Amino acid sequence: MQIEQLQGSIVAIVTPFKDNGEIDLEAFDELVEFHIENDTDGIVVCGTTGETPTLSDAEDAQMIERCVQKVNGRVPVIAGTGSNSTADCIKYSKKAVELGVDALLIVAPYYNKPSHRGIYKHFSQVAKNVDAPIILYNVPGRTGSTIDPATAIELANNHKNIIAIKEAGGDMSVFAELLANRPKGFKIYSGDDFLSFSANCMGADGCISVIANLIPADFHKMMKESIDGDYKAARKLFFKYRALMELMFLESNPLPVKTALALMGRVREVFRAPLCEMEDENREQLKIELKKLKLL
């Protein structure tokens, strides 16, 4: 599949750790196979859900290379290469391209809070300097900055390699504006599992998902049905997993999803500081819902 045609369930995959805190590459390989076997449409490696802020540059490269090799062309691989430094973003992006990824997921510059003009210039410079498809990533709750719809559309119109946006601002009116004004071929992915069904009903192209780590087959099915217009079937799956989607953000991502994967026996319940184990009552609430859904 060409990355420009990618739709459906794109998992933001976790980074498993061993008890000593090192990356567990064998567990990661098993997760990749789990997704391929269960119809996940694409994999994002080294995103927020992959605890990238605590990975070294060498570990980032190791994870990207491992994912590309393990996937072996079966689905698109997208690497998170964002930074609040434009120069570093270009450096990380070029390295990911060298390692063979199909596209880049680049978050809005965080902490330094650039203006809309600054955000435009940041992505424009990256697009001019990196020969690869780019997916913009708007998540103001984490970055403190916003890629507004007008800026996203301007970037898409002016740079052919800016092919999509992951929209995680939590506002359906933003999806509406993007969908109404996007250029031909520009993809719009939800970055919020809970809103993905509704966004697809308006014409979006799927979701870069957290919950797909746990239910890849059913989330793929929900995305396909909602994109294809089988809203009744998709709605049934949405309501089945609605509570679990909400629990994925009971504490900061990726704490709930990685805890759930550990309860399911797929990874160890190990995080890198400053992240740590969930509060006991929250963990128990998550466990109850997983049992209810027969995921344990």
TrEMBL record:
Main EC class the enzyme belongs to: lyase
Protein's pathway: Amino-acid biosynthesis; L-lysine biosynthesis via DAP pathway; (S)-tetrahydrodipicolinate from L-aspartate: step 3/4
Pfam families, per database record: DHDPS
Cell compartment(s), UniProt: Cytoplasm
UniProt keywords, alphabetically: Amino-acid biosynthesis, Cytoplasm, Diaminopimelate biosynthesis, Lyase, Lysine biosynthesis, Schiff base
Molecular-function annotations in GO: 4-hydroxy-tetrahydrodipicolinate synthase activity
Active-site residues (renumbered): Y137 (proton donor/acceptor), K166 (schiff-base intermediate with substrate)
Record-level GO BP terms: diaminopimelate biosynthetic process; lysine biosynthetic process via diaminopimelate
SUPFAM superfamilies: Aldolase
InterPro entries: Aldolase_TIM, DapA, DapA-like, Schiff_base-form_aldolases_AS
Catalytic activity: L-aspartate 4-semialdehyde + pyruvate = (2S,4S)-4-hydroxy-2,3,4,5-tetrahydrodipicolinate + H2O + H(+)
SMART domains to which the protein is assigned, alphabetical: DHDPS
EC number: 4.3.3.7
Residues noted as binding pyruvate in the record, renumbered to the chain: T49, I208
Site (Part of a proton relay during catalysis): T48, Y111
GO cellular component: cytosol
PANTHER family: 4-HYDROXY-2-OXOGLUTARATE ALDOLASE, MITOCHONDRIAL (PTHR12128:SF66), DIHYDRODIPICOLINATE SYNTHASE (PTHR12128)
Subunit description: Homotetramer; dimer of dimers.
Sequence similarity: Belongs to the DapA family.
Role played: Catalyzes the condensation of (S)-aspartate-beta-semialdehyde [(S)-ASA] and pyruvate to 4-hydroxy-tetrahydrodipicolinate (HTPA).
Designated name of the protein: 4-hydroxy-tetrahydrodipicolinate synthase
The organism's taxonomic lineage, starting at the top: Bacteria, Pseudomonadati, Bacteroidota, Bacteroidia, Marinilabiliales
